[in-house]
């Protein structure tokens, strides 16, 4: 089952789904997991990776919150969701920039996921105007 399918089943939505928002929610969920895994791998590195760990964990928390709010269909809180999508894009970009400073493969993969998530959040923002 996909997030898109779950959202389409909500009684108030009558099968209608904002596909860009569903994609952003899905990728934010993946990004939170990738960032958490990267932070954990950074902790095991011999060099000082504190800033990367911080960027990854901050991003993971924001991505998780974004997923949770983006999948809520009852009522409306569009102003807060738009602000969170924008924050998520900024957090993902900051995390990607930090991860790109390191030659570790886990950081490379995390940065790639963060860039994709930031792009998806911005696309979702455009669909909510």
3D architecture notes:
The model has no long low-confidence stretch (mean pLDDT 93). This protein has helices at 3-8, 19-44, 50-70, 78-99, 105-127. The longest helix is centred in the N-terminal third of the chain and has 26 residues, at 19-44. It contains 5 helices and no strands. It has 129 residues and is mostly helical. It has one domain: Substrate Binding Domain Of Dnak, Chain:A, Domain 2 (Up-down Bundle).
Topology diagram in text:
Blueprint: H1 3-8, H2 19-44, H3 50-70, H4 78-99, H5 105-127
Features:
Substrate Binding Domain Of Dnak, Chain:A, Domain 2; 5 helices; 0% strand; elongated; 129 residues; mainly alpha
CATH architect. name: Up-down Bundle
Number of domains: 1
Reading off the top of the CATH hierarchy, the class is best stated as Mainly Alpha
CATH topology assignment: Substrate Binding Domain Of Dnak, Chain:A, Domain 2
């Amino acid at each position: 089952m996909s997030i898109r399918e779950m959202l389409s089943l909500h009684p108030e939505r009558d099968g209608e789904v904002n596909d860009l928002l569903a994609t952003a929610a899905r990728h934010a969920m993946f990004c939170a997991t990738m960032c958490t895994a990267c932070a954990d791998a950074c902790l095991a590195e011999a060099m000082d990776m504190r800033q990367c760990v911080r960027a990854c964990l901050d991003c993971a928390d924001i991505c998780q919150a974004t997923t949770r709010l983006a999948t809520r269909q009852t009522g409306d809180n569009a102003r807060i969701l738009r602000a969170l999508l924008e924050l998520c894009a900024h957090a993902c970009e900051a995390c990607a920039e930090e991860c790109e400073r390191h030659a570790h493969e886990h950081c490379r993969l995390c940065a790639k996921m963060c860039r994709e998530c930031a792009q998806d959040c911005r696309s979702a923002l455009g669909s909510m105007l």
